[in-house]
């Protein structure tokens, strides 16, 4: 009888071992294989930003075609906010602002240069690049905790990434602040492999035409001057208002050890689509707004207003914090 039981126990042990969870290295290898084999994919995500005075919620639509083609549409759930579309095609990286019928071309390596919590390849790259990443297998998910690669990584240093255990598709990303509170949360839905994309699906003009037709411009004609809540000790020393063709321009000067200048002006919608070249790296502010940063200059557009922040003393992370805090209706 004992001779019969031993083979049975050995067989059961081998079966359980074969059905056990994969190692971290095995999962990463499978994720890389899946990303490399897919001709393209499309997915939707709900992104919640909890970093400002009020929470910001975005519906995000992501398209990717093998060969470095991307289309990311960020649409705010608030009726008074517009949408932005990020495109990458054979001609470069573009940010479209449909409410202005305007596109901006960036000299940028986006999305490789920083973390992108809604892009499959970026999540895998962050896992690969962090030798100290941790890995946990639960009943339904593989969970990785890694360092982020943001310009403001000191304030958002860590992320938790969840993949579906069966499909190896992204389920949720939580970006954590220094105190491990969730600052950004992305929840995916409907991740699907897609081999139907054509290069023309990522064309600037066609995407602008579609987005502009679907966008209702709810902006007011007048400029509402906003002030930063985060100033790093600098104080408002001067406010200058000048007239422009589209309305007015306001220049706020903040003096101090961490001094800076903030320029705001209304950017009116164009009857014909226009393109403007922008020097700098693509950066996402804490409220989801996309801008460009380079050599002490940060520029972005929000709610039909153009902003330009310049400083010789603020570092990039500090500039991003100042920009993200421009929401007060009176000086701090």
Detail the poorly predicted runs: 1-19
Helical content (DSSP H or I, runs of 4+): 10-25%
Per CATH, the superfamily of the largest domain is Lipoprotein localisation LolA/LolB/LppX
CATH class of the largest domain: Mainly Beta
* Distinct helical segment count: 5
Overall CATH architecture of the largest domain: Clam
State mean pLDDT (0 to 100 scale). Answer: 85
Question: What portion of the residues fall into strands of 2 or more residues?
Answer: 35-45%
Count of DSSP E strands?
21
What can you tell me about this protein's structure?
With 332 residues, the protein is α+β, with helices and mostly antiparallel strands. The chain has 2 domains: 191 residues, outer membrane lipoprotein receptor (LolB), chain A, CATH 2.50.20; 76 residues, no CATH class. The chain has 5 helices and 21 strands. The strands form 3 sheets. Strands 7-8-9-10-11-1-2-3-4-5-6-16 form a 12-stranded mixed sheet, sandwiched between helices. Helix 2 packs antiparallel against helix 3.
Keywords for this entry:
332 residues; 42% strand; seven-stranded antiparallel β-sheet; alpha+beta; 2 domains; outer membrane lipoprotein receptor (LolB), chain A; single chain
